[in-house]
Structures
1.
Amino acid sequence: MNGFSERNLMPSSVSLVNGKNASKPACLEVLARRLCKSISVWYSSRCYEERYQRMIPLRPRLLVFELALAMLMLAVKANSAGPVLIAYGGFNETMAPMWVGVEKGFFKKYGVDAHVLQTRSGQIMMATLATGGASLVWAAPSSALNSTASGMKLGCFAAGNNRLSRELIVRKGIESIEDLRGKSFGVQSIGGGAWLSTMVALDALGIDVDKNKLSVRVIGDTGTQTQALLTGNIDAAVLPYSYAEIAKRGGAKSLADVGALKVVYQATVMCSPKDSTSVTLETQVALAKGLIESLIYILEPANRRDVAGILKKNLRLAKDEEGDASARTAQLQMPNVEIGLNVDSWKTVRRIVTRINAKVQDVELDQVIVPTVLQNLESSGFMAEMRKRVPR
């Protein structure tokens, strides 16, 4: 059978993808390539035969086959868009618009079959992107700038949050900002999203890391940081409101509500390699539209219970009230649909990241920030329509 099924002529070699039946586009592409090869071989033999025998002019038949091949490849191109994998490192409410967008079908609504892949840190996430393990990343700007400084040609085009909805939480025994001198803070990785949120918060509070001899320890994701704080393995952490509530119920104390400072901050952005052949401008625009629909869904009060359920499941929270707190945090971290990248925010990030990677200072932000996606959404009238749908 040469690898073909008798029933549908689809190659059996592509019948399974990650243990599931392959999509029709994947099968179509393989079938089309085989058909093209067969046509090419047949056409070459006919050309040689006709030229040799000088039977009829070749050009009309050449045009016919060129047209047939062109139409076939266009059909393949139009139907070969498989799943788009988006890697992420942060395990907290910054993922809310992605989880909601995938589960409620907002990305599929605009033609993108988006899936998300969790990695253990920002470094692993960017390595996954660099090696082709994912098409895009949902990354902290610090990860994007570090990767760009290392030579990766990266383009970031949409942000999923623009508020730092977190609190500075400390263990029992620490009563004031002054008591933080010489103490330890927990993060997920150096240079990643939790680290960046911590550094931006301390910067906004006027707390100098070096002068106060603060140490930063790699502990794990947000839940692990919370547990480490309660057990005394770290002294402090800058936690999302939801996890801050868990910590306070366990006896920890809040020294500052960072969200009340109105810090202009974008914790996570969507990025892809600039030389990507699978993520086109059309793909980016479609993903941005799905992201905006997801943000509106999160902000709609009638959807609170559903959003809480999605977050409780994905964050593996134990109680319904913890899911409710996560839903509130997701609303507060992005109270609008302004997904455009904020240059002033990125300048702050660049200044902070330069402390651990001097090469970042030389990164021109226009190398990383891609404005064309937002420009497309604005000029088409999509943004104007979506702003009208934001709950007041």
2.
Amino acid sequence: MTILTSLLGTKAFGFYMFLQDANTAASPGASPGGSPGASPADKGGFSMYEIFKNLDAIAYTVVGILLLMSVYSIAIMVERYLTYSQAKKQSREFAPRVAQALKNDRIEEAINISDKHRRSHLAMVVNSGLQEFRAHDQSSEISGDEIEASKRALQRAIAIKTAEFRRGLSGLATIGSTAPFVGLFGTVYGILHAFQNMKTHAGAGIEVVAGGISEALITTALGLVVAVPAVWLFNYFTGKVDSFVVEMDNSASELIDYFLKSRTRRLNP
């Protein structure tokens, strides 16, 4: 996908520059002194304003779709970045405090600390395990079934939090993979439209279609502008989620070790 977007961008930009040079070269001889007989391409030029001004309904629809994709992807990027930053910050505060509480066998204090760090992924996992462990804490000994119940509670918490962390990433992946093709559709339509104009003006040079093709290529460029950041951020956020999953798995394993040690202490006082 990355190779395809790079090729599309290179070819689109190169062809755009070729058309711009062709139009510039054709302008002086087409109508000396800026006579009223200048071609539409000469009048319009290749400024971004003129390109967007001359787009037709289909091209505007493509541009609108790409802009909606861009707004949606930016919203996901900002929301996910804030969520991951808060989770990381609260987890750094939570880990040493809950470790000290568990070291002193203060289960209730550890649960209260977890409740105060609701945005921390580690706090959610630890809280689920401790709640299950506390339910059997009053018994004289902790059976293997109770340890297994705590393991299942930890696994459920990890699965729920992982799904929450991955929310919205599929949208980024979809935008990153489809935006170039949406732009390419606009380009193909624009080039066909430009060739139809050339057929209407039989015998005319490239200046007749240069403006139309440059307008068509703008949709490919816009598609790449939308897709590339989405792909970059999707890969970055996926890496962050993977690291969070590893942290939750490690915390769950350490908590199970704590439960097993507690069981051993009760069986061998």
3.
Amino acid sequence: MTSLPTPQPNQKKLGLVIDLDTCVGCQACVTSCKEWNTQGYSAPLNDSDSYGADPSGVWLNRVHGYEVKEEGRDDTRVVHFPRSCLHCETPACVTVCPTGASYKRAEDGIVLVNPDTCIGCKLCSWACPYGAREYDYSHGVMKKCTLCVDRIYNTNLEPEDRAPACVKACPTGARHFGDLGDPESDVSQLVKARDGFELLPEMNYKPVNKYLPPRKRRDAVTSAAIALPKGDGSAMDRLFSWADKFLSGKPAGTIASLQDMSDKLEG
């Protein structure tokens, strides 16, 4: 079986912080992960019968949607839940590996699989309680999220691009990357401010990746109405006021009035 590196003071722990409040389930992280990793460390990520009756393939990041109900409300909402390797501090997937193919790096805490020594026994996938391992039937080896290790240290990229592909692709900024071993890092501070949590803490695998909980619904039921600022009476203000009423189905004049207002703006 494989041993874990000895924990060190101020150990670097690279990982992700995922905001379940702002994730919209667009799958941009999923497709960007596939695109980058099918030509990188985990290449290739094969698909089989993609458009057939029984499609299958290797996806290192998946997004699930769950309908949930908030306490005190009758309606429900959909929470989108991205799932990938959590790069645990004490990962069972590593210690169960008979060949050492599954290992945890001492320098940054990233959990990886060496495809050259992986025998495809699937013990790691059975040991992982998060379902984060993906078996590649085409090559008979296990694959998983690498935190884009071939990207985050790539000096040929601009510093701002040295982040996992999923983080760079997220259009809502729901995914954050950094050192969770540093209590002063942006990601650690974000977890602290939003009461971030880890999955299945009772199993004591100590996932490095953290999730930020959805905020309570903010709508007319739970929030007081916000008064809009009063207009200043300028021609531009009157134009936008007219357009707002017109688009809302309550025209406050005719096209002629708009033409008259345009003349005033030009003058």
4.
Amino acid sequence: MMYIKGVGMTKFDYSQKAWWQFAYEATLEALEDAGMKISDISAIVLTTISSCDGVSEHQTHKISLLSDLFKINCPIIETPSVCAGGGVAFWTALHLNEFKPSTRAKLGAGPVPHRNKVSGAGNILVVAGEKLVDNKSEMTTHWIMSAAERVIEQTEGMLFPVQNALVWQQYMEKYGATMDDLSLISFKNHQNATLNPKAYYYKRPISLEEIKNSPVIASPFRLFDCSLSVNGGAAVILSKEKTDIEVIGSGFATDYLLTFGREDSTHFKATKLAKIEAFLQAGIKPEDIEVAEVHDAFTSVELFSYEDLGFAEIGKGAELIRSGRVNLDGSLPINTSGGLKAKGHPISVTGLAQIYEIVNQLRGKCGERQVKPLPKIGLVHNIGGTGGSVTVHILRKVV
């Protein structure tokens, strides 16, 4: 496995910077965190859906733009995977450990990128930047829905809130969970976000009463069951050189684009498959996880992901939120950052922002929202679309 040297993240908000500015700012923070310069990077993995503008900022040669921005000539790979973009980019970077930095210096063509003493890749920058909210709601929705099936499902009105609401209706009927359970998840995540300076809802508390009485978006979902579209950036620097944070497990799986053509519409098979791979690599069990960032694009997804990730038996996920076990002071705190729900969800950036949170939790740098006692093992769960692509990563604090 590989190690994490540095992490960076911008504040999630509606500031109207270009997507590459968010990526740039996050990278500078990650480099500072790692005590490195950009010339120490030997490869970059980028993920973004670019801008919803589609005109003045739409750039299809983003890897060359990054070369220009960072004044670097290393290999740059782009791995778009919509909401799972950050997790997929991270997974891709982990699998570049056989990459050999260029020998072009021997040919008189410039300096060799930094290469550590361990065989394989040098330092790999994984970065994402997104200016998602910069247009009319109709255009932003159009871009977001490019992550779903556009011929059969969308012509029937199957936008993401509708898809997930139908999944949740089936889950409730089958297992007996309630909308009150989802309200508790939303309330938990909003409480955590008020303590996170980089979250959209920082110092902006929302009451349980407000959540339960918010407008209906797609019955039975209300406004506060849905994640918040924002702008932002995040970055992670990976290396084979030993640091204080080790990646001990990494899983990635995909599933059919047509949500209701799958084996089980009440759970995400890709989460289960990615989870199995990650835990096998890590050599641990779900009960060993001490803190987790779980993909909560909708509150319902967080609840049944408790089950898909092995934290609860199938149909018993609601017990975790009812008991308070997943609260900040519980035995398994989940979404200490505020989650997508209240920190915000800038599509491709989310997976790396989740890693940012878990790394800082393991390092004891989360201030008022710090999990106590200090956790040693954390999990990151990132979903693309309605369960169409999923990554699960497990991180460990090296003593």
